[in-house]
Design brief:
Shape: globular
Largest sheet: 8 strands, mixed
Strand content: 15-25%
Distance between the termini: 35 Å
Bound molecules: adenosine-5'-diphosphate, iron/sulfur cluster, magnesium ion
Oligomer: single chain
Helix content: 25-40%
Radius of gyration: 20 Å
Order of helices and strands: EEEHEEHEHHHHEHEHEEHHEE
Number of helices: 10
Length: about 325
């Protein structure tokens, strides 16, 4: 049974890639609950499974070389058990997605207006004049001049292209928007503007947003709650401000220590601190705590997978020795 406040619930999501080098265990039992009207950050280093999680939700993984199990509950049903036809009706209409690189998602041959129009027409039958009107109003809503409709993607800056992608993503008034590193390719000032836009749209449209990022500074500025991901596992979930103020999991703490103090988004040329060591090889994942090889607090008990521990106030962590709140 679902919780009424939940827009999407992921339970024990597992995803294995069948590669020529063997089986890569990309997701090893992900649990995540997205609440209505929240911006939920999904944060972790590169390669920890953030994008695979987002693609699994929308059924975008290549079925031939991928084994996916678990439950992704949306609207009372498991998306993983839905047909491709049913998923096509959900994608772009009820759940939409914004990717890191807008140019890869936009067609170079069509104007921005015709691409936004197509995104609407895929789900909502409208007369041409009404499509044009709606396209113009979407462009204004994301901070672009309505005449941008006549332009081609390559004529726009990276920030404007990402605004076009956001206009397409909200064009059918979805309940959930998944944004996978939407500002990573943009320069610092534009990043901040696009994040502000996402936040104001989320409020106006009562959207739920899953905001994927490797950058805790983005979480600090934008998110209500956050889940920290490591080596295909969620290791901690909590309200964003509480987690940043007092991370319970050693990996969350290490990531937060990498936030440049007083420099939103790392806006200087000084090198960022990095977490020593590297994540485990996912072809041969450890049976115990996945962070053990990099954890300064690891003890003998860490050779066994840590169970979920509830810390109260909506916080949970997977660690044998979580740090409690000061
Ligand atoms: N199509 C694929 N085939 C094989 N391995 C993949 C594929 N897509 C992703 N992976 C692997 O799955 C792991 C998680 O990747 P990903 O979710 O893209 O990480 P990130 O957290 O950076 O978004 C990585 O080890 C990556 O190499
Ligand atoms: S379970 Fe052990 S190794 Fe894993 S993060 Fe906690 S203390 Fe470190
Ligand atoms: Mg990614």
């Amino acid at each position: 049974m679902g919780n009424d406040d939940e827009v999407l619930a992921i339970e024990d999501l597992r995803c294995d890639f069948l590669t020529i080098e063997g089986i890569l265990y990309a997701l090893s039992g992900v649990n995540l609950s997205l609440l209505r009207g929240e911006i939920h950050g999904l944060v972790g280093e590169s390669g920890c499974g953030k994008s695979v999680t987002s693609r699994a939700i929308l059924g975008l993984l290549d079925k031939k070389h991928t084994r996916t199990r678990g439950v992704v509950r949306f609207d009372g049903r498991n998306l993983l058990a839905r047909s491709e036809k049913e998923l096509r009706n959900i994608r772009g209409k009820r759940i939409s997605m914004v990717f890191q690189d807008p140019l890869n998602s936009l067609s170079p041959m069509e104007t921005v207006g015709s691409q936004i129009g197509e995104a609407i027409a895929n789900h909502i039958p409208l007369e041409t004049a009404e499509l044009r009107r709606r396209t113009a109003s979407l462009l204004e809503r994301v901070g672009l001049h309505p005449d941008t409709a006549k332009r081609y993607p390559f004529e726009l800056s990276g920030g404007m292209q990402q605004r076009v992608m956001i206009a397409m993503a909200i064009s059918c008034e979805p309940e959930l928007l998944i944004a996978d590193e939407p500002t990573t390719a943009l320069d610092v000032t534009i990043q901040a503007q696009v994040l502000r836009l996402l936040k104001s749209l989320q409020r106006e449209l009562s959207l739920s947003v899953l905001l994927i990022t490797h950058n805790f500074a983005v979480v600090a500025e934008t998110c209500d709650r956050v889940s920290v991901m490591y080596a295909g596992h969620i290791v901690e979930t909590a309200p964003a401000a509480a987690l940043i103020a007092s991370p319970a999991h050693p990996y969350s703490r290490a990531l937060i220590d990498c936030i440049p103090r007083g420099r939103p988004h790392g806006s200087t040329s000084a090198p960022l601190p990095v977490i020593p060591g590297s994540p485990p090889r996912l072809y041969d994942p450890p049976s115990g705590c996945p962070f053990a090889s990099r954890c300064g607090q690891a003890g003998e008990d860490c050779g066994v997978m840590p169970p979920r521990t509830e810390l109260g106030k909506g916080r949970m962590v997977f660690c044998h020795h979580p740090r409690s709140e000061p």
